[in-house]
Amino acid sequence: MGRSAKTELAMLPERRAAEWLSQQPDWILHEILREEWWWTGRPEQFAPPGDWFVWLMLSGRGFGKTRSSAEWLGDRVIKFPLDVSGYRTEWMIIAETLSDAMRLCVNGPSGIARVLERRLGEQRRSIHDGTGRWRIFKAQKPFIQIYDEGGKEAQVIYTEGADNEDVARGFNLAGAWLDEFAKWPKPDGSWIEGIAPALRAELPDGEFPRCVVATTPKLVIQLVEWRKRKDGSVVVTTGSTYDNASNLAAPTLAELHKRYHGTRIGRQELLGELIEEIEGAMWKLDWIERDRVKPEEIPTLVYTAIGMDPAGSGTRDETGLVCAARGANGHDYVLGDWSRQVAGHAAARRAWEMFHAYRANVLVVEKNMGERWLSDVLYQAYREMQAEGIFPPGGTAPVKLIAAKVAKKLRAEPVAGRYEQGGRVHHVKGQNLADLETQQISWVPGETKDSPDRVDGLVYAELALYDREGGEVMTATPYGRPLPGQGSMGPLAGAFPGR
């Protein structure tokens, strides 16, 4: 890796360094004294050239991702104060939590507040920035407001925590900084459903919204997809902790090396490697990719199940909701993942909405949770939807219980085995299955206490399909009629229902 201009000068003989400095204009010397980024940053810490949409920094701890991201975003904010319509531009910093966004990305020693202080002046003090405009800024929770020379509000930088897939939904962003993306609870869904559609502001000079994604690598489907792109829309910068050794305390570096060197965690945390296969995980990404199909490749569906894993007591627990169907060819197709951080009546309602959207035959629920639900919220929500005309009157809620006596690993093994055999379970492209797939390929039974809610939903749905093997195929639905044959996918022909 390269060295900063500051380091290069320090390595010169004293006479040559003094000679070089004497030849520089005053403004260069002023920026050197101010520790401008062009002077202190290493070459790999600067954004690559080109018309990329995502700058992905995959690197180990201590590489300097935060400073690089803050400098890049600060530069973009100053360069584009207005969009093409003359309206102030909006930007966003998203971290795992709002506290992380404010404490590390904004107010930390390498945060954007320090960048703006250097570039625009200290908080609430104006300074000329070289463009003919005078600005001041004010850092406050949960945004940073920048004002123009007349005190009028100009650019604004919002800060958010990545609590769910809806983060950034509804914004009209000119750019974003996604910090420690791989640590987010639902990184794939957050990008696809919330962030990517929000990067839509029209910028002058033929420019367009961009984002920097800075993260220590961890197996996340979206990271794998970004890294494999060859169309120029994503540029990848990789690096290790050791690249920034000169700026790290020697005892800290030695301790990290002693603790992690030569381990899988060390390859991720220190060397910045994205390891696509985790030892002990029950699924492999290659299995899923090998058998993935397009929607138009799905045959007629003869039986459809919704697997439901009700949310537990954990603060991050989700209600797992996954739809899988058996095709007329005997293969299984994973059609959708509606898992969300909901519980109680809202979760029951969402389960039946998914059931209705996919014209399912059965809702499968774990027995120890399901018994309580059957007598209360599940039946109640089903009756409500019958009264609303969503489900036909008469009949009971089509629920099947899965015994909870079997350990999660044992229950999942036959499902994972079916994937491994090849050609038997197919994930459908473009159906927002990335968070489910990330959980599948990263869940190592016994390694964590967190419940794999989406995997559980998938397993329940798949087990319901296995139970029908060797028996008569039933296509009846709660609507009292067989699945209509409209194209190869019946009522699902064309587009899948949303979430």
Can you walk me through this structure?
By secondary structure, the protein is an alpha/beta fold. The chain has 2 domains: 42-269, Rossmann fold; 285-492, 2-Layer Sandwich (Nucleotidyltransferase, domain 5), CATH 3.30.420. Helices cover 35% and strands 18% of the residues. The protein has helices at residues 5-10, 14-22, 26-33, 37-40, 65-79, 98-106, 112-120, 187-198, 221-228, 250-260, 264-269, 285-290, 344-357, 367-374, 377-387, 408-421, 434-442, 453-466; strands at 54-59, 90-95, 127-128, 134-140, 143-147, 153-161, 173-179, 210-215, 234-239, 301-309, 320-327, 332-337, 362-366, 399-402, 425-427. The strands form 2 sheets. The chain has a 9-stranded mixed beta sheet, sandwiched between helices. It is elongated and about 90 Å long. The two termini are 44 Å apart.
Question: How is this structure best summarized?
Answer:
By secondary structure, this protein is of the alpha/beta class.
